[in-house]
């Protein structure tokens, strides 16, 4: 197979792997979360916990909700899972208002959720939170690392492979867009040149030198040197590279 065909196949496989891993973690977390929220006696959460967790238990419900939101937004969690977290939490708040749940228990459940999602999902990586349209445009135009040159058609083929992979899966619209973002961000991290790194850029068009006219004469004398101009020495540092990002 051609190198580009292998790259497309690898992009499809990695796209499927990203979704499979995230959905598996989401399923496990959802089962554990529902087990926590199903009980009316979560106060054992305070037994044998570290200092950080004990500190969480001193916070108000509002403070814990803010912390949980930051945890959910800062990790690689499918949007449908985040929506379900808040939907079930709202049901617990309604149970509190109806007298079916007490405030301490609800706070302890929030602490359990914060712990659960911190350990179940990894932090976002660079680019994960950017809009898909921006990631697409970046991948199509960015300079690539030396040895990783990608023509415009090759770049579009890789993106199309990723998009088609997720379009063929049974995913909600928000999760489908989310997984596309993760996969394209991964492509960018793999191929984009770091600042100051040698890059592969499209070849600039060249123009043939202008032919010398028969009547063109060289000047009799060269212009006088500027006495104030600094003299170049052998030890002078070279000019900075004009390589792209």
TrEMBL record:
Highest taxon, organism lineage: Bacteria
Region listing for Disordered, in residue ranges: 194-245
UniProt name for this protein: Uncharacterized protein
């Amino acid at each position: 197979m051609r190198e580009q065909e292998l790259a497309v196949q690898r992009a499809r496989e990695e796209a499927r792997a990203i979704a499979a891993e995230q959905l598996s973690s989401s399923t496990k977390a959802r089962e554990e979360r529902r087990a926590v929220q199903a009980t009316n006696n979560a106060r054992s959460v305070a037994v044998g916990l570290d200092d950080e967790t004990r500190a969480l238990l001193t916070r108000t419900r509002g403070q814990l909700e803010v912390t949980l939101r930051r945890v959910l937004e800062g990790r690689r969690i499918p949007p449908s899972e985040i929506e379900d977290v808040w939907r079930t939490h709202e049901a617990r708040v309604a149970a509190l208002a109806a007298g079916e749940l007490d405030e301490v228990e609800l706070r302890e459940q929030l602490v359990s959720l914060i712990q659960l999602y911190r350990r179940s999902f990894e932090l976002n990586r660079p680019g994960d939170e950017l809009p898909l349209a921006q990631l697409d445009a970046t991948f199509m135009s960015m300079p690539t690392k030396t040895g990783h040159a990608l023509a415009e058609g090759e770049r579009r083929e890789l993106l199309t492979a990723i998009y088609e992979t997720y379009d063929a899966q049974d995913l909600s619209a928000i999760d489908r867009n989310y997984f596309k973002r993760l996969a394209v961000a991964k492509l960018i991290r793999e191929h984009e040149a770091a600042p100051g790194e040698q890059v592969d850029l499209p070849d600039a068009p060249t123009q043939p030198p202008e032919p010398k006219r028969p009547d063109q004469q060289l000047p009799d004398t060269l212009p006088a040197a500027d006495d104030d101009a600094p003299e170049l020495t052998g030890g002078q540092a070279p000019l900075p590279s004009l390589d792209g990002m």
